Amino acid sequence: METKVLSVDGKELRTIELNDSVFACAVSDGSIYHAIRNELANARQGTSSSKTRSEVEGSHKKPWRQKGTGRARSGTRQSPVWVGGGVAFGPHPRDYSYRLPKKVKRHAIKSILSQKTAEGCLKVVEDFSIETGKTKELVRIMTNLAAEKRSVLVLKDDDRMVKRAAANIPGLTFLSYNRLCAHELFYGKTIIMMETAATKLGDFFTKARAEGVSDES
Q1: Which of 32, 37, 53, 179 is most buried, judging by how many CB atoms fall within 10 Å of its CB?
Q2: Cβ–Cβ contacts within 10 Å for residue 137, how many?
Q3: Span 93-116, pLDDT tens digits
Q4: pTM of the full predicted structure?
Q5: CATH topology for 2-43+100-210?
């Protein structure tokens, strides 16, 4: 499929041929769901913790005798029903991460890119760099390309100066073409992709298929 290549000023320069297997494939809602769920689970710290009745410090002496006081029987001040006692069925540190098959991840990325392309949310821009690394220069470029606040910039390589300029822009996420995030792509209102990144992305998935990693759901 063909798409327009825009300049940093937002003007049309030429057209480019995109890989149909990446930007025009059948959308798999299931793969998208599992990829986003996996990323969010892997990002969880899992450090929430609470003390059980055996971990709460203090005397384990019976507060009062069993019968004859008129009060409810009680065996320990660490009981969960007491203020300051332990927590029943409370959270404990755990690892939420799990492994998702590569073919599901790759098919999810292709599905999201195809969906964004069909919706007109994907814009291919000529390769550019921010020599000074100043935020105001990138803000000027993004203003011409994306009116939406939540945008994703896909880089052609690990450009340190562009990343430095993008770090201070609220709502802008930058990703390398070979390390895409399904969550950011899916919820991004506009995806700005550098021309070389769009070309490399097609080759990246083609190479993955040639190496025997299937992308079929």
Answers
A1: 32
A2: 18
A3: 999 999 999 999 999 999 999 999
A4: 0.82
A5: Ribosomal Protein L4; Chain: A; (3.40.1370)
